[in-house]
Amino acid sequence: MTTTALEPGSPSAPPGLVLSIQDVTMVYPTEPPVHALAGVSLDVGEGELLGVVGPSGSGKSTLLHVMGTLDRPTTGDVIVAGHSVSSLSDRELSSLRARHIGFVFQQFHLLNGYTALDNVADGLLYTGMALYDRREMAAHALVRVGLGSRLMHTATKLSGGEKQRVAIARALVGRPAIVLADEPTGNLDTKTSDSIVELIEELHDEGASIVVITHNRDIAKRFPRTVSLRDGLIESDLQNGDH
Amino acid sequence: MAKTDLAPSRLHFGDLGRTASVGLRTRKTRAALSAVGIMIGIAAMVSVLGLSESSKWDLLAQLDRLGTNLLTVQAGQGIGAGSGQLPEEAAGMVARIGPVEATSTISAVDASVYKSDFIPSGQTSGISVQAVDVNLLETLGGRLADGDFLSEATADYPTAVLGSVAAERLGIRDVDDQPLVWLGDQWFAVIGVLQEFELSPNLDRAALIGVNASETFLDHDAVAGSIYVRTNPQFVDSVMDVLPASANPQNPEEIEVSRPSDALEAREAASDAFTTLFLGLGAVALLVGGVGIANVMVISVLERRAEIGLRRALGATRRHVAVQFLGEALLLAIIGGVGGVLLGVGVTAIYASSQGWAILVPTLAWAGGLTAAILIGAIAGLYPALRASRLSPTEALRTS
Q1: Alpha helices in chain A, H assignment, sequence order
Q2: Is residue A28 a contact partner of residue A11, using CB atoms and an 8 Å limit?
Q3: Does the structural domain A3-240 have CATH classification 3.40.50.300?
C-alpha cells in the first residue's frame, strides 16, 4: 500500500467539497482550559471515505462534534454542504443536520420500542417529509444494508451488528452530503466489525461521503484516506494508494 | 462557497403525537402510575360534582312533587309553651285563611298496635296510633304502597292504614290477605300500606285510623295535635305569619308553625358542605398528581439524554425537543383526565342509580376536570421540557 501526503485544507483537496474545516480551535473553559482542537484544517470531498484515527484525548470526538455542527468551534469556521456554520443560527444548524448530515454512533442510539423501519424513518423525521414517504425510503435503506427481512423487528430483538446496520441505514436514508461515524465498530466483535467496515466501503463505492472516527489504526488504514490526530492537531493526512 | 438558503427543520403535527408518546409506549407501567394520580383527583371532583347535582335534582324533584307550600301547625309543649293541644276550633279557623287550599288534622291516640293479641303489651314496636282526616294523603302528597287510604266509608269502621315503617315492623307487606292488627284491644283491618312520607317521617311509624273510628272504638277525644296546611305557593310567608293567631287567638305564642320542606333543604345544605370538602380533597389529589407527573418527567429527561442528543443530531430544534416533552406531560395528564372523568361518571352513575336519582354530570364537572388536567399537565411538563431543550447535543450524547 502506498500513501501520499496532502496539505490540510489545501487547494489540492478533491474538488466538490462537502465539508471544509478551516483553522478550527476548540477550547473548553475548564480550569485549566482544555485545548481539544488546536487549529485543525481539513477538507472532505464529495464521495470521499476517510478515517480519522488517534489515541484517546487526541480530539477525535470533538472534531466529529464540530464537523457535525453539534458544537461550534471556539475559532475558525466549518462549512458543510456549502453552508458556513458560523453564520447560522441554532435553528438553521438543526436544519443543516436534518438535511445534510448523517450520524452513526458507537452506542447505536436506537429507540427500543420502535421497529427497525421506524428507527430508520426517524432519520427523516425533522425534514417535514410525510410518514408514508419516510417509511418507504427507510425500507429501501434497510434492504440496502441487508436487513430487508428485519423491517418490523423492534430494536431490542436485533443483534449488535444488526443494530449498527439499522443506525447506518438511518444515517444514509436522507442521502446526506456527509455521514459521520463515531467508532461505529467500537461495540462489536471482530467479525461483525469487519462486516460493518465492508458495508461502509460498499456505501462509499456507491458514492456516499463518509468520515469514520476510530481509535483502531487497522480499520482506518483500510480506507482511501487516513487522517491522524494527536493533541488536537492533524499529525498526518495520507492517501492510501491502493484504493 | 457559503450558502444560507436552508429550509427549516419541520415536524408534522401527527409526528409530534408520535414523538410525544414515545416515553408512554416504552415505559407503560410508569406512565400508567403517574396518570393514576391525576385520574384520582379528576374522578373525585367529577363524582362529587355529579353526585351533588344528581342529589339536588332528586331534592328538586321531591320538592316539586311535595311542594314547598306545606305548613305544619302544632301546639307548643313544655313549660310556658302550652298544653300540647290545639284549640278545638283551630282547624276550622285555619281553613278560613284565604290562601289556604287544604287542611288536614292528626290526633295522637293513646293506644298501641300489635300483630296479634298474644303479643305482650310492652312490645309496642314503637308504633303510634293517629286519628287522621281522610284527606291527609292528598294534603301531604303521600303515596300508597298497597291497598287504599281511609275514605268517608271506611273511616267510621275499625280499619287502619299503616305507615311504611309500621308495616315493616308488623310484618305486613301488602293487604292481599286482608291482614288484621290488634289495636287498642280491638281487631282493626289493615286496608292500606303507605310509602315513605318525605315531609312527615313521624307518620311512617304510625297506624292511621279514622277520627270517627277512634272515637267509637277507642273512646278517643279527637282534638287535633297537628294541622297540615296546604297553601297557595305565592302566599306561604304571609300564611305562616297569620297561622299562630288564627289557630289560637288567645295564645298565639303557644303555636309552632314549621315548613317541612325546610328540613329537606337544610339536609341538602349540609351535604353541600361535604361537597366542598370533597372538592378540596380532589384538588389536593390533583395537585399531588401534577407533582407526580413533573417528577416522572424530570426523571424521564435525565434518563433519556441519549435520545435527546440523538434527536438534536437528527435535526430537532430546541423547540422540537421542548414540545416533545411538554406533549408527553400533556398526554399523561389527558390520559389521567379522561380516565378520571370516566371513573367519576361511573361512580356517579352507580351511586345515583342505587339511590334512584337521575344520573347528572354537569358540563362544568367533566369539561372543568379535563381543562384542569390539561393545565396541570402543562405546568408539570414545562420545567422538564425546558430542561430537555436546553441540553446541548454533545453533552447529551457524551453522558449517554
Answers
A1: 60-67, 90-100, 116-121, 131-144, 160-172, 190-205, 217-221
A2: no
A3: yes
**CB A98 to CB B393 under 8 A?**
no
Task: Give B362 to chain A, closest Cα distance, Å.
Answer: 40
pLDDT tens, position by position, B345-361: 999 999 989 988 888 88
CB half-sphere exposure, A151, CA atoms < 13 A: 13
Give the whole-angstrom CA distance, residue B20 versus residue B330: 9
Q: Is B317 on the interface with A (CB under 8 A)?
A: yes
Q: Can you give the residue ranges of every domain in chain A?
A: 3-240
DSSP letter at A124? G
Q: How far apart are the first and last CA of chain B?
A: 35
Contact A96 B6 (CB under 8 A): yes
DSSP class of B314 = H
- Angular region, B159: left φ>0, alpha ψ -120 to 50, beta rest: beta
Is A221's Cβ below 8 Å from some Cβ in B? no
**Mutation test of the interface with chain A: which of B9, B19, B21, choosing the one with the most A Cβ atoms within 10 A?**
B9
- Rounded distance between C-alpha atoms, residue A171 and residue A149, angstroms: 19
Is any Cβ of chain B less than 8 angstroms from the Cβ of A83?
Answer: yes
d(CA A63, CA A73): 9
> pTM for this structure?
0.71
Contacts of B19 in chain A (CB under 8 A): 125
Contact by Cβ (8 Å): B163, B206:
yes
Q: Are A130 and B12 in contact (CB < 8 Å)?
A: yes
CA distance B41 to B29: 19
What ipTM was reported for this prediction?
0.90
Cα separation, A150 vs A164, whole angstroms: 13
What pLDDT does residue A14 have?
Answer: 43
CA distance B333 to B38: 6
**Residue closest to A174 by CA, chosen among A138, A217, A202, A221:** A138
Across the strands, what pairs with A45? A17
Are B189 and B159 within 8 A, CB to CB? yes
pLDDT digits over B258-296, tens only? Answer: 877 776 677 667 667 677 777 787 788 778 878 888 888
